[in-house]
Amino acid sequence: MGKKIQEKKREKETIGITAPKKEFQDWYPELVQKAGLADYAPVGGCMVIKPYGYSIWEKIQQTLDRNLKDSGHVNAYFPLFIPEKFLKKEAEHFSGFKPEVAWIEDENEKYALRPTSETIIYDSYSKWIRSWRDLPLLINQWCNIIRWETKVTRLFLRTREFLWQEGHTAHASCEEADKEVMLILKTYTDLIENCLAIPILTGKKSEAEKFAGALYTATMEALMPDGKALQMGTSHNLGQNFSKAFDIKFLDRDEKEKYVWQTSWAVTTRLIGALTMVHGDDKGLILPPKIAPIQIVIIPIPFKDSIKRVLKEARALEKSLSDKFSVKLDDRESYTPGWKYNEWEMKGIPLRIEIGPKDVKKKQVVLVRRDTGNKLPVKTKDLPKKAGKILDEIQKNLFRKAKKFLQDNTKPAGNFQQLKTLIKSKKMAKAGWCGSPACEAVVKDETGATIRLLPFKKEKGPAKCVKCGKPSKDTVYFAKAY
RNA sequence: CGGGGCGUGGCGCAAUUUGGUAGCGCAUGCGGUUUGGGACCGUAAGGUUGCUGGUUCGAGUCCAGUCGCUCCGACCA
After folding, report:
1. pLDDT of A99-127, one tens digit each?
2. Do residue A317 and residue A194 come from a single domain?
3. Which nucleotides of B are covered by protein (CB under 7 A)?
4. What domain count does chain A have?
5. How far is the CA of A10 from the C1' of B17 (A)?
6. Which of A60, A106, A153, A256 sits at 20 to 30 Å (Cα–Cα) from A315?
7. Through-space separation of residue A151 CA and nucleotide B60 C1' in angstroms
8. What is the pTM of this model?
Protein backbone atom coordinates (compact mmCIF):
# COMPACT_ATOMS: atom_id res chain seq x y z
CA MET A 1 0.00 0.00 0.00
CA GLY A 2 2.74 2.42 0.99
CA LYS A 3 4.64 1.44 -2.11
CA LYS A 4 1.65 2.16 -4.29
CA ILE A 5 1.22 5.63 -2.84
CA GLN A 6 4.87 6.35 -3.38
CA GLU A 7 4.67 5.28 -6.98
CA LYS A 8 1.63 7.43 -7.43
CA LYS A 9 3.44 10.41 -6.02
CA ARG A 10 6.39 9.90 -8.30
CA GLU A 11 4.09 9.75 -11.29
CA LYS A 12 2.47 12.99 -10.33
CA GLU A 13 5.80 14.69 -10.14
CA THR A 14 6.48 13.91 -13.74
CA ILE A 15 3.36 15.72 -14.87
CA GLY A 16 3.43 19.45 -15.39
CA ILE A 17 6.56 21.49 -14.80
CA THR A 18 9.14 19.36 -13.02
CA ALA A 19 11.83 21.99 -12.48
CA PRO A 20 11.08 24.70 -9.90
CA LYS A 21 11.81 28.29 -10.88
CA LYS A 22 14.86 28.20 -8.63
CA GLU A 23 16.40 25.81 -11.15
CA PHE A 24 16.08 28.51 -13.72
CA GLN A 25 18.13 26.90 -16.49
CA ASP A 26 15.82 23.89 -16.63
CA TRP A 27 12.65 25.66 -15.65
CA TYR A 28 12.55 28.11 -18.54
CA PRO A 29 12.75 25.79 -21.55
CA GLU A 30 10.47 23.26 -19.89
CA LEU A 31 7.87 25.89 -19.22
CA VAL A 32 8.06 27.35 -22.71
CA GLN A 33 7.40 23.93 -24.18
CA LYS A 34 4.84 22.61 -21.73
CA ALA A 35 2.79 25.80 -21.69
CA GLY A 36 2.51 25.49 -25.44
CA LEU A 37 4.43 28.63 -26.33
CA ALA A 38 7.10 27.14 -28.55
CA ASP A 39 8.99 24.05 -29.52
CA TYR A 40 12.37 23.21 -30.96
CA ALA A 41 12.36 23.08 -34.74
CA PRO A 42 13.93 20.44 -36.97
CA VAL A 43 16.11 23.29 -38.29
CA GLY A 44 19.23 24.21 -36.39
CA GLY A 45 18.94 27.35 -34.34
CA CYS A 46 15.28 27.86 -35.13
CA MET A 47 12.13 27.46 -33.10
CA VAL A 48 8.48 26.78 -33.80
CA ILE A 49 6.16 29.34 -32.27
CA LYS A 50 3.07 27.33 -31.34
CA PRO A 51 -0.47 28.71 -31.55
CA TYR A 52 -0.65 29.74 -27.91
CA GLY A 53 2.72 31.49 -28.05
CA TYR A 54 1.75 33.12 -31.32
CA SER A 55 -1.51 34.37 -29.86
CA ILE A 56 0.53 36.26 -27.26
CA TRP A 57 2.60 37.75 -30.07
CA GLU A 58 -0.64 38.77 -31.77
CA LYS A 59 -1.76 40.56 -28.62
CA ILE A 60 1.56 42.41 -28.51
CA GLN A 61 1.18 43.26 -32.19
CA GLN A 62 -2.37 44.51 -31.79
CA THR A 63 -1.49 46.72 -28.85
CA LEU A 64 1.62 48.20 -30.39
CA ASP A 65 0.24 48.49 -33.90
CA ARG A 66 -2.75 50.47 -32.71
CA ASN A 67 -0.56 52.87 -30.76
CA LEU A 68 1.85 53.33 -33.65
CA LYS A 69 -0.99 54.06 -36.04
CA ASP A 70 -2.51 56.50 -33.57
CA SER A 71 0.73 58.46 -33.69
CA GLY A 72 0.77 58.58 -37.49
CA HIS A 73 2.83 55.55 -38.42
CA VAL A 74 1.86 53.29 -41.33
CA ASN A 75 2.84 49.74 -42.18
CA ALA A 76 4.68 48.58 -45.30
CA TYR A 77 6.78 45.64 -46.40
CA PHE A 78 10.26 45.44 -47.92
CA PRO A 79 12.22 42.46 -49.31
CA LEU A 80 13.88 39.85 -47.17
CA PHE A 81 16.90 39.94 -49.49
CA ILE A 82 19.32 42.81 -49.25
CA PRO A 83 21.95 43.26 -51.97
CA GLU A 84 25.43 43.18 -50.48
CA LYS A 85 26.28 46.57 -51.95
CA PHE A 86 23.42 48.18 -50.00
CA LEU A 87 24.54 46.68 -46.75
CA LYS A 88 28.06 47.93 -47.35
CA LYS A 89 27.07 51.55 -47.94
CA GLU A 90 27.17 52.49 -44.27
CA ALA A 91 30.53 51.18 -43.12
CA GLU A 92 29.97 51.05 -39.36
CA HIS A 93 26.58 49.37 -39.86
CA PHE A 94 28.08 46.74 -42.14
CA SER A 95 30.97 45.86 -39.88
CA GLY A 96 28.59 45.66 -36.91
CA PHE A 97 26.29 43.14 -38.53
CA LYS A 98 28.68 41.29 -40.81
CA PRO A 99 29.51 38.42 -38.43
CA GLU A 100 25.90 37.30 -38.13
CA VAL A 101 24.63 37.79 -41.68
CA ALA A 102 23.41 34.81 -43.71
CA TRP A 103 23.97 35.09 -47.43
CA ILE A 104 22.51 33.61 -50.58
CA GLU A 105 23.74 34.28 -54.07
CA ASP A 106 22.81 33.84 -57.69
CA GLU A 107 25.02 34.36 -60.75
CA ASN A 108 24.79 38.17 -60.53
CA GLU A 109 24.60 39.21 -56.95
CA LYS A 110 25.14 38.29 -53.34
CA TYR A 111 22.22 38.95 -51.00
CA ALA A 112 22.02 39.19 -47.26
CA LEU A 113 18.98 37.73 -45.54
CA ARG A 114 17.97 40.83 -43.62
CA PRO A 115 19.58 41.09 -40.20
CA THR A 116 17.76 44.45 -40.00
CA SER A 117 16.29 46.49 -42.85
CA GLU A 118 17.78 49.98 -42.69
CA THR A 119 19.64 49.66 -45.97
CA ILE A 120 16.93 48.14 -48.17
CA ILE A 121 14.35 50.54 -46.82
CA TYR A 122 16.51 53.63 -47.17
CA ASP A 123 17.16 52.88 -50.80
CA SER A 124 13.42 53.39 -51.29
CA TYR A 125 13.43 56.47 -49.10
CA SER A 126 16.01 58.08 -51.38
CA LYS A 127 13.45 57.81 -54.17
CA TRP A 128 10.41 58.79 -52.17
CA ILE A 129 11.67 61.88 -50.41
CA ARG A 130 12.08 65.10 -52.39
CA SER A 131 10.55 67.89 -50.34
CA TRP A 132 10.00 68.93 -46.75
CA ARG A 133 6.37 68.19 -47.58
CA ASP A 134 7.27 64.47 -47.76
CA LEU A 135 8.42 64.60 -44.13
CA PRO A 136 8.15 63.18 -41.64
CA LEU A 137 8.00 59.75 -43.21
CA LEU A 138 6.82 57.28 -40.57
CA ILE A 139 6.90 53.67 -41.69
CA ASN A 140 6.78 50.44 -39.74
CA GLN A 141 7.30 46.86 -40.88
CA TRP A 142 6.31 43.58 -39.20
CA CYS A 143 8.58 40.82 -40.41
CA ASN A 144 11.07 38.09 -39.66
CA ILE A 145 14.78 38.69 -39.16
CA ILE A 146 17.71 36.39 -39.78
CA ARG A 147 20.83 36.53 -37.66
CA TRP A 148 23.06 33.54 -38.14
CA GLU A 149 24.14 33.07 -34.55
CA THR A 150 26.91 30.56 -34.00
CA LYS A 151 24.98 28.92 -31.22
CA VAL A 152 21.45 29.06 -29.94
CA THR A 153 21.04 29.39 -26.27
CA ARG A 154 17.38 29.96 -25.56
CA LEU A 155 13.90 29.73 -26.99
CA PHE A 156 12.56 33.22 -27.79
CA LEU A 157 15.76 34.89 -26.56
CA ARG A 158 18.26 33.83 -29.16
CA THR A 159 17.36 32.05 -32.39
CA ARG A 160 18.59 32.40 -35.95
CA GLU A 161 15.22 33.62 -37.09
CA PHE A 162 12.86 35.75 -35.05
CA LEU A 163 9.89 38.06 -35.52
CA TRP A 164 9.83 41.77 -34.85
CA GLN A 165 8.56 45.13 -35.92
CA GLU A 166 11.04 47.69 -37.17
CA GLY A 167 10.13 51.34 -37.52
CA HIS A 168 12.03 53.59 -39.90
CA THR A 169 11.36 57.29 -39.92
CA ALA A 170 12.81 60.30 -41.71
CA HIS A 171 12.64 63.85 -40.39
CA ALA A 172 13.65 67.36 -41.38
CA SER A 173 15.76 68.03 -38.28
CA CYS A 174 17.72 66.35 -35.55
CA GLU A 175 15.28 67.73 -32.97
CA GLU A 176 12.39 66.05 -34.72
CA ALA A 177 14.29 62.78 -34.83
CA ASP A 178 15.06 63.16 -31.13
CA LYS A 179 11.38 63.64 -30.44
CA GLU A 180 10.51 60.56 -32.46
CA VAL A 181 13.05 58.47 -30.57
CA MET A 182 11.46 59.53 -27.30
CA LEU A 183 7.91 59.09 -28.56
CA ILE A 184 8.70 55.50 -29.49
CA LEU A 185 10.43 54.94 -26.19
CA LYS A 186 7.26 56.08 -24.49
CA THR A 187 5.10 53.87 -26.70
CA TYR A 188 7.29 50.87 -25.92
CA THR A 189 7.34 51.68 -22.23
CA ASP A 190 3.58 51.76 -22.24
CA LEU A 191 3.45 48.35 -23.89
CA ILE A 192 6.07 46.79 -21.65
CA GLU A 193 5.19 48.30 -18.28
CA ASN A 194 1.43 48.74 -18.58
CA CYS A 195 0.54 45.67 -20.64
CA LEU A 196 3.33 43.18 -20.03
CA ALA A 197 3.72 44.40 -16.43
CA ILE A 198 7.50 44.33 -16.72
CA PRO A 199 9.27 47.28 -15.07
CA ILE A 200 12.14 48.69 -17.09
CA LEU A 201 14.97 51.12 -16.84
CA THR A 202 15.36 53.51 -19.74
CA GLY A 203 18.37 55.41 -20.92
CA LYS A 204 21.08 55.64 -23.53
CA LYS A 205 23.52 52.97 -24.59
CA SER A 206 27.23 53.64 -24.29
CA GLU A 207 29.18 54.16 -27.52
CA ALA A 208 30.38 50.57 -27.34
CA GLU A 209 26.88 49.18 -26.97
CA LYS A 210 24.92 51.41 -29.34
CA PHE A 211 23.40 50.25 -32.63
CA ALA A 212 25.92 49.95 -35.45
CA GLY A 213 25.46 53.11 -37.50
CA ALA A 214 23.48 55.14 -34.98
CA LEU A 215 24.15 58.54 -33.47
CA TYR A 216 22.81 57.20 -30.21
CA THR A 217 20.59 54.37 -28.98
CA ALA A 218 17.82 54.69 -26.42
CA THR A 219 17.15 51.40 -24.67
CA MET A 220 14.77 49.66 -22.31
CA GLU A 221 16.30 47.15 -19.96
CA ALA A 222 14.53 44.66 -17.71
CA LEU A 223 16.08 42.43 -15.07
CA MET A 224 15.45 38.69 -15.31
CA PRO A 225 15.19 36.36 -12.27
CA ASP A 226 18.70 35.01 -12.86
CA GLY A 227 20.17 38.49 -12.54
CA LYS A 228 20.76 39.02 -16.22
CA ALA A 229 19.49 42.10 -17.99
CA LEU A 230 17.34 41.72 -21.06
CA GLN A 231 17.18 44.44 -23.67
CA MET A 232 13.46 44.81 -24.27
CA GLY A 233 13.58 47.24 -27.14
CA THR A 234 15.67 49.95 -28.67
CA SER A 235 15.03 53.25 -30.40
CA HIS A 236 17.88 54.78 -32.36
CA ASN A 237 18.59 58.25 -33.62
CA LEU A 238 20.51 57.45 -36.79
CA GLY A 239 21.43 61.07 -37.38
CA GLN A 240 22.39 61.63 -41.00
CA ASN A 241 24.66 58.59 -41.22
CA PHE A 242 22.35 56.62 -43.46
CA SER A 243 20.87 59.55 -45.35
CA LYS A 244 24.36 60.52 -46.47
CA ALA A 245 25.19 56.93 -47.39
CA PHE A 246 21.92 56.47 -49.29
CA ASP A 247 21.57 60.02 -50.57
CA ILE A 248 18.23 60.78 -48.93
CA LYS A 249 17.85 64.52 -49.48
CA PHE A 250 15.02 67.01 -49.48
CA LEU A 251 14.46 70.64 -50.39
CA ASP A 252 13.59 72.46 -47.21
CA ARG A 253 11.35 75.49 -46.78
CA ASP A 254 14.44 77.66 -47.04
CA GLU A 255 15.06 76.22 -50.54
CA LYS A 256 18.22 74.54 -49.40
CA GLU A 257 18.92 70.86 -50.08
CA LYS A 258 19.42 68.89 -46.85
CA TYR A 259 19.95 65.32 -45.74
CA VAL A 260 17.14 63.86 -43.64
CA TRP A 261 17.51 62.85 -40.00
CA GLN A 262 16.42 59.30 -39.32
CA THR A 263 15.33 56.98 -36.57
CA SER A 264 14.84 53.25 -36.37
CA TRP A 265 13.40 51.15 -33.55
CA ALA A 266 12.34 47.61 -32.81
CA VAL A 267 10.85 45.14 -30.40
CA THR A 268 10.90 41.39 -30.97
CA THR A 269 9.31 38.09 -30.00
CA ARG A 270 11.93 38.12 -27.27
CA LEU A 271 9.33 40.00 -25.22
CA ILE A 272 7.48 36.70 -24.87
CA GLY A 273 10.57 35.19 -23.29
CA ALA A 274 10.79 38.10 -20.86
CA LEU A 275 7.12 37.75 -19.98
CA THR A 276 7.64 34.09 -19.21
CA MET A 277 10.74 34.57 -17.09
CA VAL A 278 9.58 37.59 -15.11
CA HIS A 279 6.10 36.43 -14.06
CA GLY A 280 6.22 32.63 -14.23
CA ASP A 281 6.33 30.42 -11.14
CA ASP A 282 6.72 26.75 -10.21
CA LYS A 283 3.29 25.98 -11.64
CA GLY A 284 3.95 27.62 -14.97
CA LEU A 285 3.26 30.80 -16.81
CA ILE A 286 1.44 33.79 -15.31
CA LEU A 287 0.11 36.19 -17.90
CA PRO A 288 -0.81 39.78 -17.09
CA PRO A 289 -4.52 40.21 -17.93
CA LYS A 290 -3.86 42.93 -20.49
CA ILE A 291 -1.77 40.66 -22.67
CA ALA A 292 -3.42 37.28 -21.93
CA PRO A 293 -5.10 35.84 -25.05
CA ILE A 294 -7.54 34.18 -22.63
CA GLN A 295 -8.25 36.23 -19.51
CA ILE A 296 -10.83 34.00 -17.88
CA VAL A 297 -11.30 30.26 -18.11
CA ILE A 298 -14.55 28.73 -16.92
CA ILE A 299 -14.37 25.21 -15.57
CA PRO A 300 -17.64 23.41 -14.93
CA ILE A 301 -17.66 20.72 -12.24
CA PRO A 302 -19.65 17.92 -13.81
CA PHE A 303 -21.53 15.45 -11.64
CA LYS A 304 -23.68 12.96 -13.43
CA ASP A 305 -26.95 14.19 -12.00
CA SER A 306 -26.28 17.92 -12.34
CA ILE A 307 -24.08 18.23 -15.40
CA LYS A 308 -26.77 19.63 -17.67
CA ARG A 309 -27.75 22.38 -15.30
CA VAL A 310 -24.15 23.30 -14.54
CA LEU A 311 -23.20 23.41 -18.19
CA LYS A 312 -26.17 25.56 -19.02
CA GLU A 313 -25.17 27.99 -16.31
CA ALA A 314 -21.54 27.93 -17.45
CA ARG A 315 -22.55 28.79 -21.01
CA ALA A 316 -24.66 31.65 -19.76
CA LEU A 317 -21.66 32.91 -17.80
CA GLU A 318 -19.42 32.68 -20.83
CA LYS A 319 -21.89 34.69 -22.85
CA SER A 320 -22.39 37.36 -20.21
CA LEU A 321 -18.65 37.86 -19.75
CA SER A 322 -17.46 37.64 -23.31
CA ASP A 323 -18.33 41.18 -24.36
CA LYS A 324 -16.01 42.57 -21.70
CA PHE A 325 -13.37 39.88 -21.39
CA SER A 326 -11.71 37.21 -23.42
CA VAL A 327 -13.29 34.06 -22.00
CA LYS A 328 -12.91 30.36 -22.60
CA LEU A 329 -15.30 27.69 -21.39
CA ASP A 330 -13.44 24.41 -20.98
CA ASP A 331 -16.28 21.93 -21.32
CA ARG A 332 -14.17 18.99 -22.47
CA GLU A 333 -15.66 15.87 -20.96
CA SER A 334 -12.59 13.69 -21.00
CA TYR A 335 -10.61 15.70 -18.46
CA THR A 336 -11.33 16.07 -14.77
CA PRO A 337 -11.59 19.52 -13.20
CA GLY A 338 -8.32 18.98 -11.34
CA TRP A 339 -6.53 18.20 -14.55
CA LYS A 340 -7.91 21.36 -16.12
CA TYR A 341 -6.87 23.52 -13.17
CA ASN A 342 -3.29 22.42 -13.60
CA GLU A 343 -3.40 22.76 -17.36
CA TRP A 344 -4.67 26.34 -17.37
CA GLU A 345 -2.42 27.33 -14.52
CA MET A 346 0.51 26.12 -16.56
CA LYS A 347 -0.71 28.29 -19.41
CA GLY A 348 -0.95 31.27 -17.11
CA ILE A 349 -4.62 32.23 -17.49
CA PRO A 350 -5.02 35.03 -14.92
CA LEU A 351 -8.49 34.19 -13.64
CA ARG A 352 -10.38 30.92 -13.29
CA ILE A 353 -14.08 30.52 -12.64
CA GLU A 354 -15.23 27.25 -11.12
CA ILE A 355 -18.90 26.42 -11.24
CA GLY A 356 -20.47 23.28 -9.81
CA PRO A 357 -23.87 22.18 -8.50
CA LYS A 358 -23.33 23.80 -5.10
CA ASP A 359 -22.60 27.12 -6.79
CA VAL A 360 -25.62 26.93 -9.05
CA LYS A 361 -27.78 26.40 -6.00
CA LYS A 362 -26.28 29.40 -4.24
CA LYS A 363 -26.28 31.55 -7.40
CA GLN A 364 -22.56 32.02 -7.16
CA VAL A 365 -19.27 30.96 -8.69
CA VAL A 366 -15.78 30.49 -7.29
CA LEU A 367 -13.06 32.80 -8.59
CA VAL A 368 -9.44 31.70 -8.40
CA ARG A 369 -6.56 34.09 -9.02
CA ARG A 370 -3.54 32.70 -10.82
CA ASP A 371 -1.08 35.10 -9.22
CA THR A 372 -2.01 34.45 -5.57
CA GLY A 373 -4.03 31.23 -5.81
CA ASN A 374 -6.73 32.82 -3.67
CA LYS A 375 -10.24 31.43 -4.00
CA LEU A 376 -13.23 33.69 -3.65
CA PRO A 377 -16.95 32.90 -3.92
CA VAL A 378 -18.80 35.60 -5.85
CA LYS A 379 -22.52 36.07 -6.49
CA THR A 380 -23.26 35.54 -10.16
CA LYS A 381 -24.90 38.92 -10.52
CA ASP A 382 -21.76 40.68 -9.24
CA LEU A 383 -19.45 38.66 -11.46
CA PRO A 384 -18.68 40.99 -14.39
CA LYS A 385 -17.84 43.86 -12.09
CA LYS A 386 -15.87 41.73 -9.64
CA ALA A 387 -13.95 39.92 -12.38
CA GLY A 388 -12.89 43.22 -13.91
CA LYS A 389 -11.73 44.46 -10.55
CA ILE A 390 -9.70 41.35 -9.82
CA LEU A 391 -8.10 41.34 -13.25
CA ASP A 392 -7.00 44.93 -12.63
CA GLU A 393 -5.56 43.88 -9.30
CA ILE A 394 -3.67 41.00 -10.87
CA GLN A 395 -2.22 43.33 -13.49
CA LYS A 396 -1.06 45.73 -10.79
CA ASN A 397 0.17 43.01 -8.48
CA LEU A 398 2.35 41.43 -11.15
CA PHE A 399 3.93 44.76 -11.94
CA ARG A 400 4.42 45.56 -8.27
CA LYS A 401 6.14 42.23 -7.62
CA ALA A 402 8.42 42.61 -10.62
CA LYS A 403 9.23 46.18 -9.66
CA LYS A 404 10.18 45.08 -6.17
CA PHE A 405 12.45 42.42 -7.63
CA LEU A 406 14.14 45.02 -9.82
CA GLN A 407 14.64 47.36 -6.88
CA ASP A 408 15.81 44.64 -4.50
CA ASN A 409 18.33 43.39 -7.01
CA THR A 410 19.83 46.69 -8.06
CA LYS A 411 22.61 47.79 -5.72
CA PRO A 412 25.19 50.55 -5.74
CA ALA A 413 28.84 49.62 -6.31
CA GLY A 414 31.33 52.06 -4.86
CA ASN A 415 34.43 50.32 -6.13
CA PHE A 416 35.53 47.59 -8.49
CA GLN A 417 35.57 44.86 -5.85
CA GLN A 418 31.99 45.63 -4.88
CA LEU A 419 31.00 45.61 -8.53
CA LYS A 420 32.57 42.19 -9.01
CA THR A 421 30.80 40.81 -5.95
CA LEU A 422 27.44 42.23 -7.02
CA ILE A 423 27.67 40.80 -10.54
CA LYS A 424 28.73 37.46 -9.16
CA SER A 425 25.76 37.41 -6.81
CA LYS A 426 23.44 38.06 -9.78
CA LYS A 427 22.65 41.68 -9.11
CA MET A 428 22.45 44.69 -11.31
CA ALA A 429 25.00 47.26 -10.17
CA LYS A 430 24.58 51.01 -10.12
CA ALA A 431 28.00 52.61 -10.38
CA GLY A 432 29.95 55.66 -11.37
CA TRP A 433 31.68 55.78 -14.75
CA CYS A 434 34.30 58.21 -15.98
CA GLY A 435 33.09 57.78 -19.55
CA SER A 436 36.18 56.05 -20.85
CA PRO A 437 35.70 53.04 -23.14
CA ALA A 438 38.81 51.52 -21.62
CA CYS A 439 37.24 51.26 -18.15
CA GLU A 440 34.07 49.88 -19.73
CA ALA A 441 36.08 47.24 -21.57
CA VAL A 442 38.03 46.18 -18.47
CA VAL A 443 34.82 45.77 -16.48
CA LYS A 444 33.35 43.64 -19.24
CA ASP A 445 36.50 41.59 -19.46
CA GLU A 446 36.80 40.90 -15.78
CA THR A 447 33.18 40.62 -14.65
CA GLY A 448 31.24 39.78 -17.81
CA ALA A 449 28.98 42.73 -17.13
CA THR A 450 28.33 45.50 -19.60
CA ILE A 451 26.92 48.98 -19.22
CA ARG A 452 23.25 48.40 -19.82
CA LEU A 453 22.38 52.05 -19.91
CA LEU A 454 23.15 55.62 -18.96
CA PRO A 455 19.95 57.03 -17.44
CA PHE A 456 18.43 59.98 -19.30
CA LYS A 457 18.14 61.97 -16.14
CA LYS A 458 21.46 62.02 -14.32
CA GLU A 459 21.08 59.97 -11.16
CA LYS A 460 22.77 60.34 -7.84
CA GLY A 461 25.30 57.63 -7.28
CA PRO A 462 28.92 56.94 -6.40
CA ALA A 463 31.04 59.97 -7.23
CA LYS A 464 33.98 58.01 -8.63
CA CYS A 465 34.40 55.77 -11.63
CA VAL A 466 33.99 52.21 -10.45
CA LYS A 467 37.10 51.15 -12.32
CA CYS A 468 39.69 53.95 -12.39
CA GLY A 469 38.48 56.06 -9.46
CA LYS A 470 38.51 59.30 -11.44
CA PRO A 471 35.50 61.59 -11.04
CA SER A 472 32.36 59.96 -12.40
CA LYS A 473 30.71 61.45 -15.47
CA ASP A 474 27.56 59.35 -15.28
CA THR A 475 25.90 56.98 -12.91
CA VAL A 476 25.33 53.86 -15.01
CA TYR A 477 23.87 50.37 -14.66
CA PHE A 478 26.06 47.31 -15.07
CA ALA A 479 24.77 43.77 -15.55
CA LYS A 480 25.37 40.63 -17.49
CA ALA A 481 23.01 40.46 -20.43
CA TYR A 482 21.17 37.98 -22.59
C1' C B 1 34.43 29.65 -32.14
C1' G B 2 36.56 26.85 -27.21
C1' G B 3 35.04 23.11 -23.14
C1' G B 4 31.30 19.40 -20.96
C1' G B 5 26.71 16.31 -21.42
C1' C B 6 22.99 13.68 -24.19
C1' G B 7 20.63 11.11 -28.74
C1' U B 8 16.23 4.15 -27.63
C1' G B 9 7.73 4.42 -29.69
C1' G B 10 4.82 11.38 -29.11
C1' C B 11 7.22 12.54 -23.93
C1' G B 12 10.29 10.69 -19.72
C1' C B 13 13.37 6.66 -18.95
C1' A B 14 15.47 1.13 -18.66
C1' A B 15 18.41 -2.46 -21.16
C1' U B 16 25.11 -0.47 -22.78
C1' U B 17 29.49 -2.02 -17.58
C1' U B 18 29.39 -8.33 -19.15
C1' G B 19 27.14 -8.23 -27.44
C1' G B 20 22.18 -12.90 -27.95
C1' U B 21 17.39 -9.83 -31.63
C1' A B 22 14.10 -3.97 -27.27
C1' G B 23 11.02 -3.12 -22.03
C1' C B 24 8.48 0.29 -18.39
C1' G B 25 5.64 4.82 -16.97
C1' C B 26 2.94 8.79 -19.09
C1' A B 27 0.34 10.22 -23.40
C1' U B 28 -2.82 8.04 -27.64
C1' G B 29 -7.41 4.71 -29.89
C1' C B 30 -11.66 1.78 -28.35
C1' G B 31 -15.42 -0.04 -24.29
C1' G B 32 -17.13 1.18 -19.53
C1' U B 33 -17.39 3.46 -14.56
C1' U B 34 -16.06 8.51 -12.98
C1' U B 35 -15.40 14.08 -12.22
C1' G B 36 -15.03 20.38 -6.15
C1' G B 37 -6.93 20.08 -7.29
C1' G B 38 -3.47 16.18 -12.64
C1' A B 39 -9.67 9.50 -11.78
C1' C B 40 -9.99 4.08 -12.47
C1' C B 41 -10.71 -0.87 -14.86
C1' G B 42 -10.24 -3.59 -19.34
C1' U B 43 -8.20 -3.63 -24.17
C1' A B 44 -5.51 -2.08 -28.60
C1' A B 45 -2.03 0.31 -31.48
C1' G B 46 2.82 2.38 -31.65
C1' G B 47 10.28 1.50 -32.14
C1' U B 48 14.84 -0.89 -38.96
C1' U B 49 17.63 2.31 -30.89
C1' G B 50 19.99 10.11 -34.72
C1' C B 51 22.76 8.87 -39.31
C1' U B 52 26.96 6.31 -42.07
C1' G B 53 30.47 2.73 -42.06
C1' G B 54 33.39 -1.09 -39.44
C1' U B 55 34.34 -5.52 -35.97
C1' U B 56 31.31 -10.12 -35.11
C1' C B 57 27.77 -16.09 -36.42
C1' G B 58 25.10 -12.04 -34.01
C1' A B 59 25.44 -4.75 -32.38
C1' G B 60 20.84 -0.44 -28.76
C1' U B 61 25.43 -2.41 -26.49
C1' C B 62 32.19 -2.48 -29.07
C1' C B 63 35.15 0.93 -32.76
C1' A B 64 35.47 5.19 -36.24
C1' G B 65 33.18 9.13 -38.48
C1' U B 66 29.11 12.38 -38.94
C1' C B 67 24.65 15.11 -37.72
C1' G B 68 21.48 17.13 -34.10
C1' C B 69 20.13 18.92 -29.29
C1' U B 70 21.70 20.94 -24.69
C1' C B 71 24.78 23.36 -20.71
C1' C B 72 29.14 26.69 -19.54
C1' G B 73 32.24 30.68 -21.80
C1' A B 74 32.96 34.47 -26.29
C1' C B 75 29.33 37.30 -29.66
C1' C B 76 24.56 39.10 -30.19
C1' A B 77 17.56 41.50 -29.96
Report:
1. 889 888 888 899 999 999 999 999 999 99
2. no
3. 1-2, 12, 25-26, 28, 34-40, 67-77
4. 3
5. 28
6. A60
7. 30
8. 0.95
